[in-house]
Amino acid sequence: MPLYEKYVGRSRDDFATLEDLQKNYKVTVGDDFNYSYDVVDEIARQTPDKLAMLWVSNEGVERRFTFEDLRRLSNQAANLLTSLGVGKGDCVMLVLKRGYQFWYTLLALHRIGAIAIPATHLLTAKDYVYRANAATVKMMIITGDGDATAISATVPASVAKTGRATLPLRYAIAGASSADAPAITIDIAGTAPARPLQVSLDSRGIELAPGTVAVLVDANGNEKVLAKTALASNRVSFPIENDASIKIVNRGKSFEDVRENDWFAQEVVGYASARGIINGVPGERGALQFQGNAAASRAMFVCMLANLEDARQDQPASAFTDVAQSDWFANGAAWGSENGIVAGYGDGSVFGGEDPVTREQVAVFLMRYATMLGLDTSARVQPTHPDAGLTSQFAADAMQWAVAEGLILGNESGMLNPASTATRAEVAAILARFINTQLA
Predict the structure, then answer these.
(1) Which letter, b or e, does each residue of 172-190 get, where b requires 16 or more Cβ atoms within 10 Å of its Cβ?
(2) Which helix (DSSP H) or strand (DSSP E) does residue 292 occupy?
(3) Residue-by-residue DSSP string for 11-47
(4) How far is CA 401 from CA 15, 284, 409, 425, 440, in A?
(5) pLDDT tens digits for 390-416?
(6) Alpha helices of 309-384 — where are they, by DSSP H?
(7) Label partner for 407 (CA 20 to 30 A): which of 21, 71, 143, 310?
(8) Helix, coil or strand: residue 160
(9) What pTM was estimated for this model as a whole?
């Protein structure tokens, strides 16, 4: 049944006069009718990708919003407004010019039962005062000539020295794109910290998609994903070395070969693709594939770690005799060797980059990486998996650490499979657990 029939029924379309229309055309809505919930959300449920709004800037730049976009954005805005004390019956003045933010803010106010008062930006200060007093306005949301999405916070020097800071930015909402996300300017008081400062933002109960990452924006507007962005306990955490402008964005990608029932579909794919842990492989038709069940190689895993460290791309040649400078993994191998992540086979001269990486090798590489970062790697537990005894001697200590930290888990049969080849999805999941538990 079309949605409108829920409120107007199968109305006639042959009204003879205006009086006939007024008398016989009935719209029936309950006392609890809410346009945002009952109309926008319902359309988003039925046809989430249906175009709801086409917005064009003064410069001719188009932005398209689906009903699902408006549902999500208005929900986030409603949570923000509620956290700031706006409730049912409160009057909120909106002076947002032609900004697309006006429309989902309007829906947000409908959601919480607040009263929206749209107003022109040509008002004078006297006009604002008069309207605020006359209508008992609870809040004004006003934009200047630029974008109304800027937030700032200062980290005191005493807090910066601890290496961790939790900022009370309750309104730092993650955006579906950089254009949707507010810019967060973080100033570190005093001198820059000796080591990266781990900054945490509370999501205020808003569910964070696995692909949520912090994006560093430089003075020229260039953006760089902070691959070590951790998600834990409704918080997004990321490292910064100096004053920074940050946006929190969902950068998760989709891949043509990922099915809904794949164990890695919901949590791993978005997380890994947003951080560049896995970028995808072109399929036969050119579309990117995740290839989660394909084997991961030693070179692939070491390069993943190098990418997390943003290792420079002009590393000196490594001492590995089987690595040519033209190999796609040459820089990763050199970085891994220089930082003690990979020692090589036998006398240490062979990298074996194209060899499949085993789960126990992953544990060894990861523990060495944690040591390089200066993390506490003292945790140990004796694995109780039926096949734990098959772990090679060189990897036993690292596997005990990885199991103790919850980084490497058993499969659905309870097996550890230490000598089995790790798949692309498995190493991505292990790195996701590492970032979220060890770097948060």
Answers:
(1) bbbbbeeebbbbbebebee
(2) none
(3) --S---SHHHHHHH------TT--HIIIIIHHHHHH-
(4) 78, 40, 12, 21, 18
(5) 999 999 999 999 999 999 999 888 999
(6) 330-338, 359-372
(7) 310
(8) helix
(9) 0.70
